[in-house]
Amino acid sequence: MSISQQAFLRDAMRRLNLTRDVFATRIGVKRRALDTWLLPEGSQEFRAMPEVVERFVSEIVQNGTLLEKYTQSVQGGPLRDRIAVEGKHQLLSVDQFTRESVEELFRVADLMQPIARRQKVSRVLEGAVLGNLFFEASTRTRVSFGSAFCRLGGSVCDTTGFTFSSMAKGESIYDTSRVMSGYVDAMVVRHPDQGSVAEFARATNIPVVNGGDGPGEHPSQALLDLYTILTEFSRLGKLLDGAHIAMVGDLKYGRTVHSLIKLLALYKGIKFTLISPPGLEMPAYIVEKASRNGNVIEQQSSLAEGLAGADVIYATRVQKERFASEESEGYTPEFQISRATIDAHCGPDTIVMHPLPRDSRPGANDLSTDLNDDPRLAIFRQTDNGIPIRMAIFAVLLGVEGLVQHSMRDVTWKHPSHVGPDDSAFHGLD
Ligand code: NCD
Fold it and tell me: Is 2 helix (H, G, I), strand (E, B) or coil?
């Protein structure tokens, strides 16, 4: 080493902005050992640090990304504080995440898998009540948020649609949110107007999760989609940095793709191809946000060109309920993703995703059911991942993620090893 050991270590701690205690913990050594390495070389108590420590510390300090990672994860305190919105523990947008914090959330989701797979139970949220406020149609988001809360030991109160809520009598978002805060410990809100969930969030101090605000965002869906992509890629031996992601369909009103493209843009060198029927293109402000980290975005109007070589095809439903007038015909048959399309343009390692629901009515030309027994179709693995992700969101927002591991007990009831015929086939092939 050209500089003294003392100068080297002091410099490392300064750059990482860590105290001696935290630095020692971080590099996995005793504080007493670190103290002896930090003494002047001539002193009696001085010890030379092992070469492996020197190499490890140099690597962190010289590598900008690692430096950022080590600084953030120790410095920032609990994840709920690092993703907070104006000091509140809420999840309104994927903009709250960095690559590090999103991956930290995924580690919590991994911890939840034995509960999600019905091997273990936990009661860390015993006594807590979730208010599920859905003012728009929903099956999976509403039920999976409810199920995730229950699987952590909490209970759920639901209200669905405007008709059965006091909003039908003219009650404001502020009053509704403030009233609910006295009844429940967290709220998940879905509402047809962009920005409305943030309005709910401003009227309360309890955690609010955006379950979809009109054509705005759907952060929990994007989180489970990214988690699915990373899980599938790890099985296939692929990295997300540098991957090719094709998004197909209603990219104008589809809130799931609005959140997902921004989240994926935390990774590097991704090629996005955006394929939509005329008039349903991704809004420019989102394209601009996603154009970072060396990511390339290409807009296409034909499936054949857009899908060639894609690692992920993310199809979406045409959101006709959001059309002001007949602004688009929707999918014409040449937009349909079917087994023939995938076979023609993609390889055996492409994965096909969709946030669901898919419109299976004749003429809708949404994702075809002829892929149902094709292992490339990841849609049900995707929906299954909604549970560990939503459990992780609640655990983090309510600050109990550290209690989960030791709270688990074996499940008492019997349940099938695979919940759907599709996943037994998939695991058979794995
Ligand atoms: C989506 C939604 O509601 O935004 N569904 C979902 O939550 N998984 C997609 C859609 O309705 O097309």
Answer: coil
Say yes or no: CB of residue 218 within 6 Å of ligand 1: yes
Determine the atom of ligand 1 nearest the C-alpha atom of 319.
12
Is the CB of residue 141 below 6 angstroms from any atom belonging to ligand 1? yes
Task: Tell me the best of 136, 191, 221 to mutate to test the pocket of ligand 1, counting ligand atoms within 8 Å of each CB and taking the most.
Answer: 221
17-45 mean pLDDT? 86
Tell me the per-residue pLDDT of 301-316, one tens digit each, with 9 for 90 and over: 889 889 999 999 999 9
17: alpha, beta or left, given left = phi > 0 and alpha = psi -120 to 50?
Answer: left
Residues 129-156: tens digit of each pLDDT: 999 999 999 999 999 999 999 999 999 9
Containing H/E element for 343? helix 339-345
Q: How many CB atoms lie within 10 A of CB 120?
A: 17
The Cβ of residue 338 has, within 10 Å, a number of other Cβ atoms equal to 15
Residues 352 and 337 sit within 8 Å (Cβ to Cβ): yes
Q: Is 322 a pocket residue for ligand 1 (Cβ < 6 Å)?
A: no
The single-letter code of the amino acid at 166 is S
Backbone dihedral region of 87: left (phi > 0), alpha (psi from -120 to 50 degrees) or beta? left
pLDDT of 255-279, one tens digit each? 999 999 999 999 999 999 999 998 9
The finding on whether 388 has its CB within 6 A of some atom of ligand 1 is no
Residue closest via CA to ligand 1's atom 12 equals: 317
Cα–Cα distance, 44 to 22 (Å, whole number): 25
Q: How far is the CA of 256 from the centre of ligand 1 (A)?
A: 7
Q: How far apart are CA 75 and CA 18, in angstroms?
A: 8
Ligand 1 pocket residue status of 144, Cβ below 6 Å: no
Distance 412 CA to ligand 1 centre (A): 34
Contact 122/115 with Cβ under 8 angstroms?
yes
Does residue 345 contact residue 294 with C-beta atoms inside 8 Å? no
